[in-house]
Design brief:
heterodimer; A: alpha/beta; four-stranded parallel beta sheet; two-stranded antiparallel sheet; 6 strands; B: 15 helices
Amino acid sequence: MPSVNGSDVKRVIVACDAGMGSSVMVASTLRTKLAKYGVEVKHTPVDEIPGDANVVLCHQGLAARAKSTAPGAVVVPFAIFMGDPAFTKVENAIANNQVLES
Amino acid sequence: MSLSDAQSATAANKNREGGVGAAVQRFGRFLSGMIMPNIGAFVAWGLITAFFIPTGWTPNEGLAALVGPMITYLLPLLIGYTGGKIVHGIRGGVIGAIVTMGVIVGADVPMFMGAMIAGPAAAWVLKKFDKLIEGKVKAGFEMLIDNFSIGIIGMLLAIVGKLAIGPVVTKLVEWAGNGVDFLVDAHLLPLASLIVEPAKVLFLNNAINHGVFTPLGTQEALETGKSLLFMIESNPGPGLGILAAFMFFGPRMLRASVPGAIIIHFFGGIHEIYFPYILMKPKLIAAAIAGGMSGVLTGVILDNGLVAPPSPGSIFAYITFTPKGEYVGMFLQVFIAAAVAFVVAFFLLKFDKELRQEAKEEAAAKEAGLPDPMTGA
């Protein structure tokens, strides 16, 4: 099971089906929150998650695909697109250098 | 119901579907992935059409000359290129475009479906060839081989496209068109919502809309000036009705997030935002289906249609692509769908066991003068 230390996270990938709609929206809200930790936020289609990604956020309906595209990454699924606890979890892990697991 | 309950419930759902769900999603993504990056070109074509054709806002014969070549050549070539690129990078894209050209010339109708077949297929052949000669090319001859392999294979496949694929796909498009006409004439098109709405919330929304409706609808719009097929999946009405019902009658902890979701859904056109609300209370899919069907039925009765694919499915895209003078029909279709979805969702939420329990506890707490468990106030 992949895991990563909060301080090792330099980039968070937000993935959705097309990489054009909901992921862009989630990424833009997350980007402002994570900028202060020097963490970059990118959005991609779920089938094109870059191989070196270590943290991926995506809706739970797409999590299976995210895991098969990026087996080495910590995939954090979320249920709703705004105010989901998963976003706070990732932010806290980065802020406090906690371990993130899929 | 708490968020984590919802998460485990849908996680269980997902396990039941296993890999099949992901495989279907992935194939859908393959189809929509050829169309979606090119939606901007569809929008440009739609705007030019809306403004400059004889029945448009500012008819202009000279500028209307753009309409034909764009739909005959530009859009299919972009799709063929993108389809090839998905399979085999830029080289795949180039040969995809070459072979799509053969298919276009071999057909009498715009070749969206032809491009969606020929582009990836041509790239696949080139990929096999590239694999075959990998490591066998003498140093210094790579560029020569690279260019001429695309040139020669592209030429041969373009000929196949012209002589075989074009005519065959023309027939297929004709049948598909007849099928759609039949569904419309028999007033059966609303039944499409039975499949479309559940598929949507399983994240097949792009696959269905852009894999199926955008190519078929564009074909129809070219013949008749508009297509109702653009308004089946993309109608923001059902989602609006469901979100509104959640705002008033949904689980208390979720209500606060709904107004923002409504704005993003209805005006921004990102429908994904309402899927989670349905996944949490899966029976609400009935509200989506009822809303979708009433919307499509309204469209069939009023002979509605849009001139180009509204993507994303925002009310602004709808307004932009509504034919001149047909606004009332369009708004009726959207708002009837919203109203029906709202009413059905209202009843489903009203008689939801967990929510009634929640309401009861709340009332009891109030009576006992205890602090509200949700706000802690």
